[in-house]
Amino acid sequence: MNKIITKFAVAKVKAKCRFSEVLSRFTDTRGEGHVDTAIKIIIAVVIGALVLAGLVLLWNSVIMPRLNLEISTMFGGGGGAAPAPSQ
Known about the structure:
Elements: H1 2-27, H2 32-74
């Protein structure tokens, strides 16, 4: 009978300890810095996406047309075929 009472007493102490741990987690404010870090990461991702979108726009609207013009000029301006010799 004493073993059962002892086991219940140990379980009661463990439950109180666990409850106090959980309660201290809810009242702890040490994790407030994590929210700031998450916001910084989100801002960095958004800025990175905007820079990437700007580079894609620049590549498609300025660089590729100029490159196509230079290559077509270099190879005779036709659709990839060399111009026919004139007689």
